[in-house]
Predict the 3D structure of the following.
Amino acid sequence: MSFTITTANVNGLRAASGKGYVEWLTATSADVICLQEVRAEPLQLAEHVREPEGWHTLWAPSTAAKGRAGVAVLTRQEPLARRVGFGSAEFDTTGRYAEVDLPGLTVASLYLPSGEVDTPRQEEKERFMAEFLEYLKSLRKRAEEAGREVVVCGDWNIAHREVDLKNWRTNQKNAGFLPEERAWLGRVLDEAGYVDVVRRLHPEGPGPYSWWSYRGRAFDNDAGWRIDYIMTTPGLAAKSLAAHVERAPSHPERWSDHAPVTAVFDDLG
Protein backbone atom coordinates (compact mmCIF):
# COMPACT_ATOMS: atom_id res chain seq x y z
CA MET A 1 0.00 0.00 0.00
CA SER A 2 1.15 3.54 -0.68
CA PHE A 3 1.82 6.13 2.04
CA THR A 4 0.83 9.78 1.59
CA ILE A 5 2.31 12.83 3.34
CA THR A 6 0.95 16.37 3.08
CA THR A 7 2.37 19.64 4.38
CA ALA A 8 0.33 22.83 4.63
CA ASN A 9 0.92 26.30 6.01
CA VAL A 10 -2.61 27.18 7.17
CA ASN A 11 -1.97 30.92 7.77
CA GLY A 12 -3.96 30.82 11.01
CA LEU A 13 -5.91 27.64 11.66
CA ARG A 14 -8.93 29.31 13.24
CA ALA A 15 -9.45 31.41 10.12
CA ALA A 16 -8.66 28.55 7.74
CA SER A 17 -11.17 26.32 9.52
CA GLY A 18 -13.95 28.65 8.47
CA LYS A 19 -12.77 28.89 4.88
CA GLY A 20 -12.43 25.25 3.82
CA TYR A 21 -9.69 23.58 5.88
CA VAL A 22 -12.13 21.30 7.74
CA GLU A 23 -13.69 20.14 4.48
CA TRP A 24 -10.25 19.58 2.99
CA LEU A 25 -9.16 17.54 6.02
CA THR A 26 -12.30 15.41 5.81
CA ALA A 27 -11.64 14.66 2.14
CA THR A 28 -7.89 14.05 2.22
CA SER A 29 -6.45 10.57 1.81
CA ALA A 30 -3.17 11.55 3.49
CA ASP A 31 -1.71 9.31 6.19
CA VAL A 32 0.30 12.16 7.73
CA ILE A 33 -0.30 15.91 7.70
CA CYS A 34 2.17 18.56 8.86
CA LEU A 35 0.75 22.02 9.59
CA GLN A 36 2.53 25.33 10.03
CA GLU A 37 1.54 28.83 11.16
CA VAL A 38 -1.28 27.43 13.29
CA ARG A 39 -1.21 30.61 15.41
CA ALA A 40 -3.36 29.20 18.20
CA GLU A 41 -3.17 27.33 21.46
CA PRO A 42 -4.88 23.93 21.19
CA LEU A 43 -7.71 24.98 23.53
CA GLN A 44 -8.43 27.98 21.29
CA LEU A 45 -9.37 25.57 18.50
CA ALA A 46 -12.79 24.03 18.13
CA GLU A 47 -12.83 20.43 19.33
CA HIS A 48 -13.40 18.99 15.84
CA VAL A 49 -10.30 20.91 14.68
CA ARG A 50 -8.18 20.18 17.74
CA GLU A 51 -8.97 16.45 17.80
CA PRO A 52 -10.38 15.52 14.39
CA GLU A 53 -11.93 12.09 14.18
CA GLY A 54 -9.53 9.44 12.94
CA TRP A 55 -6.37 11.45 13.68
CA HIS A 56 -3.71 11.53 16.39
CA THR A 57 -2.42 15.07 16.94
CA LEU A 58 0.68 16.79 18.25
CA TRP A 59 0.32 20.56 18.71
CA ALA A 60 3.36 22.78 19.26
CA PRO A 61 2.21 26.38 19.74
CA SER A 62 4.56 29.24 20.41
CA THR A 63 4.79 30.00 24.11
CA ALA A 64 7.37 32.71 23.51
CA ALA A 65 5.07 34.83 21.32
CA LYS A 66 1.45 33.77 21.63
CA GLY A 67 -0.61 33.93 18.47
CA ARG A 68 2.45 33.55 16.27
CA ALA A 69 3.95 30.58 14.42
CA GLY A 70 2.86 27.17 15.75
CA VAL A 71 3.21 23.77 14.09
CA ALA A 72 1.38 20.47 14.30
CA VAL A 73 1.64 16.86 13.15
CA LEU A 74 -1.47 14.77 12.44
CA THR A 75 -1.16 11.02 11.90
CA ARG A 76 -3.69 8.27 11.24
CA GLN A 77 -1.52 5.86 13.23
CA GLU A 78 -0.76 6.55 16.88
CA PRO A 79 2.87 7.73 17.17
CA LEU A 80 5.42 5.78 19.11
CA ALA A 81 6.93 9.06 20.40
CA ARG A 82 6.27 12.81 20.21
CA ARG A 83 8.81 15.63 20.53
CA VAL A 84 8.57 19.42 20.41
CA GLY A 85 11.64 21.44 19.42
CA PHE A 86 15.11 20.33 18.37
CA GLY A 87 17.12 21.02 21.49
CA SER A 88 17.49 24.77 20.95
CA ALA A 89 17.51 27.08 23.96
CA GLU A 90 16.35 29.95 21.75
CA PHE A 91 13.81 28.30 19.47
CA ASP A 92 12.17 25.35 21.22
CA THR A 93 9.43 27.59 22.68
CA THR A 94 8.71 29.43 19.43
CA GLY A 95 6.39 26.92 17.78
CA ARG A 96 8.63 26.17 14.83
CA TYR A 97 9.42 22.46 15.02
CA ALA A 98 7.78 19.23 16.18
CA GLU A 99 8.29 15.58 15.27
CA VAL A 100 6.75 12.18 15.84
CA ASP A 101 8.02 8.65 15.43
CA LEU A 102 6.04 6.11 13.45
CA PRO A 103 7.29 2.58 12.79
CA GLY A 104 10.47 3.04 10.73
CA LEU A 105 9.81 6.74 10.10
CA THR A 106 10.32 10.08 11.86
CA VAL A 107 7.99 12.83 10.62
CA ALA A 108 8.68 16.49 11.38
CA SER A 109 6.81 19.74 10.80
CA LEU A 110 8.97 22.85 10.32
CA TYR A 111 8.13 26.55 10.15
CA LEU A 112 11.42 28.30 9.44
CA PRO A 113 11.48 32.05 10.24
CA SER A 114 10.66 34.24 7.26
CA GLY A 115 13.20 36.97 7.96
CA GLU A 116 13.43 40.53 6.69
CA VAL A 117 16.60 42.01 5.23
CA ASP A 118 18.61 44.33 7.50
CA THR A 119 16.42 43.70 10.54
CA PRO A 120 16.70 41.56 13.70
CA ARG A 121 14.21 39.17 12.05
CA GLN A 122 16.84 38.24 9.47
CA GLU A 123 19.44 37.74 12.17
CA GLU A 124 16.99 35.43 13.96
CA LYS A 125 16.47 33.47 10.75
CA GLU A 126 20.22 33.07 10.30
CA ARG A 127 20.65 31.81 13.88
CA PHE A 128 17.83 29.33 13.36
CA MET A 129 19.35 28.10 10.11
CA ALA A 130 22.76 27.57 11.69
CA GLU A 131 21.36 25.54 14.59
CA PHE A 132 18.87 23.63 12.50
CA LEU A 133 21.35 22.46 9.89
CA GLU A 134 23.40 20.77 12.61
CA TYR A 135 20.27 19.17 13.98
CA LEU A 136 19.29 17.86 10.53
CA LYS A 137 22.70 16.20 10.24
CA SER A 138 22.42 14.54 13.63
CA LEU A 139 18.83 13.49 12.96
CA ARG A 140 19.81 11.76 9.75
CA LYS A 141 22.79 10.07 11.40
CA ARG A 142 20.69 8.76 14.28
CA ALA A 143 18.01 7.55 11.88
CA GLU A 144 20.55 5.70 9.75
CA GLU A 145 22.00 4.00 12.81
CA ALA A 146 18.50 2.90 13.84
CA GLY A 147 17.48 1.82 10.34
CA ARG A 148 14.85 4.54 10.11
CA GLU A 149 13.87 7.13 7.49
CA VAL A 150 13.12 10.83 8.08
CA VAL A 151 10.80 13.35 6.44
CA VAL A 152 10.94 17.04 7.37
CA CYS A 153 7.93 18.84 5.92
CA GLY A 154 7.00 22.45 6.07
CA ASP A 155 7.40 26.07 5.17
CA TRP A 156 11.14 26.54 4.76
CA ASN A 157 10.67 30.20 3.68
CA ILE A 158 13.43 29.93 1.07
CA ALA A 159 13.11 29.47 -2.69
CA HIS A 160 16.14 27.44 -3.66
CA ARG A 161 16.59 28.13 -7.35
CA GLU A 162 15.37 30.53 -10.02
CA VAL A 163 12.74 28.01 -11.14
CA ASP A 164 11.29 28.12 -7.62
CA LEU A 165 9.75 31.57 -7.92
CA LYS A 166 8.14 33.46 -10.77
CA ASN A 167 9.75 36.88 -10.29
CA TRP A 168 13.22 35.78 -9.27
CA ARG A 169 15.03 38.71 -10.89
CA THR A 170 13.31 41.30 -8.70
CA ASN A 171 13.67 39.25 -5.50
CA GLN A 172 17.41 38.63 -5.39
CA LYS A 173 17.88 41.09 -2.51
CA ASN A 174 14.78 40.03 -0.59
CA ALA A 175 14.47 37.57 2.28
CA GLY A 176 13.57 34.16 0.97
CA PHE A 177 15.82 34.37 -2.09
CA LEU A 178 19.07 35.79 -0.73
CA PRO A 179 22.26 34.09 -1.98
CA GLU A 180 23.23 33.01 1.53
CA GLU A 181 19.78 31.51 2.18
CA ARG A 182 19.85 29.61 -1.10
CA ALA A 183 23.34 28.35 -0.31
CA TRP A 184 22.15 27.14 3.10
CA LEU A 185 19.32 25.17 1.50
CA GLY A 186 21.91 23.69 -0.84
CA ARG A 187 23.81 22.50 2.24
CA VAL A 188 20.65 20.79 3.53
CA LEU A 189 20.61 18.81 0.29
CA ASP A 190 24.33 18.25 -0.27
CA GLU A 191 25.95 18.33 3.16
CA ALA A 192 23.14 16.97 5.32
CA GLY A 193 22.05 14.64 2.52
CA TYR A 194 18.31 15.26 2.33
CA VAL A 195 16.28 15.01 -0.88
CA ASP A 196 13.70 17.54 -2.13
CA VAL A 197 11.04 15.04 -3.18
CA VAL A 198 8.96 17.40 -5.31
CA ARG A 199 12.01 18.49 -7.29
CA ARG A 200 13.15 14.87 -7.60
CA LEU A 201 9.86 14.05 -9.32
CA HIS A 202 9.51 17.39 -11.18
CA PRO A 203 13.13 18.26 -12.03
CA GLU A 204 12.56 20.99 -14.60
CA GLY A 205 10.16 23.54 -13.14
CA PRO A 206 9.07 26.27 -13.13
CA GLY A 207 7.44 25.65 -9.80
CA PRO A 208 5.19 24.01 -8.88
CA TYR A 209 4.63 27.04 -6.64
CA SER A 210 3.09 26.66 -3.20
CA TRP A 211 2.67 30.26 -1.97
CA TRP A 212 1.12 33.30 -3.61
CA SER A 213 0.80 36.74 -2.05
CA TYR A 214 -2.73 37.96 -1.36
CA ARG A 215 -1.68 41.25 -2.94
CA GLY A 216 -2.49 42.06 -6.53
CA ARG A 217 -3.31 39.15 -8.82
CA ALA A 218 -0.41 36.91 -7.79
CA PHE A 219 -2.56 33.78 -7.55
CA ASP A 220 -4.45 34.39 -10.78
CA ASN A 221 -1.17 35.04 -12.62
CA ASP A 222 0.59 32.13 -10.86
CA ALA A 223 3.26 34.58 -9.67
CA GLY A 224 4.21 32.33 -6.80
CA TRP A 225 7.08 30.92 -4.76
CA ARG A 226 7.97 27.32 -4.01
CA ILE A 227 8.91 27.50 -0.33
CA ASP A 228 6.99 24.53 1.10
CA TYR A 229 9.12 21.39 0.89
CA ILE A 230 8.97 17.70 1.69
CA MET A 231 12.58 16.83 2.49
CA THR A 232 13.44 13.19 3.10
CA THR A 233 16.34 10.88 3.68
CA PRO A 234 17.52 9.17 0.47
CA GLY A 235 15.96 5.79 1.24
CA LEU A 236 12.51 7.32 1.57
CA ALA A 237 13.01 9.56 -1.48
CA ALA A 238 13.74 6.47 -3.56
CA LYS A 239 10.23 5.25 -2.75
CA SER A 240 8.52 8.48 -3.88
CA LEU A 241 5.93 7.81 -6.57
CA ALA A 242 4.17 11.14 -7.10
CA ALA A 243 4.01 14.68 -5.76
CA HIS A 244 1.80 17.65 -6.44
CA VAL A 245 0.62 20.99 -5.09
CA GLU A 246 -3.06 21.06 -4.18
CA ARG A 247 -3.67 24.44 -5.79
CA ALA A 248 -7.18 25.81 -5.26
CA PRO A 249 -9.32 26.05 -8.42
CA SER A 250 -9.86 29.78 -7.87
CA HIS A 251 -8.81 32.64 -5.60
CA PRO A 252 -12.07 32.65 -3.55
CA GLU A 253 -11.66 28.93 -2.80
CA ARG A 254 -8.31 29.36 -1.05
CA TRP A 255 -8.24 28.82 2.71
CA SER A 256 -4.60 29.95 3.05
CA ASP A 257 -2.05 31.93 1.05
CA HIS A 258 -0.18 28.61 0.79
CA ALA A 259 -1.42 25.44 -0.88
CA PRO A 260 -0.94 21.94 0.54
CA VAL A 261 1.98 20.00 -0.92
CA THR A 262 1.48 16.23 -1.11
CA ALA A 263 3.82 13.34 -1.85
CA VAL A 264 2.96 9.67 -2.28
CA PHE A 265 5.44 6.93 -1.42
CA ASP A 266 5.56 3.23 -2.11
CA ASP A 267 4.86 0.92 0.80
CA LEU A 268 7.31 1.90 3.54
CA GLY A 269 7.56 -1.74 4.60
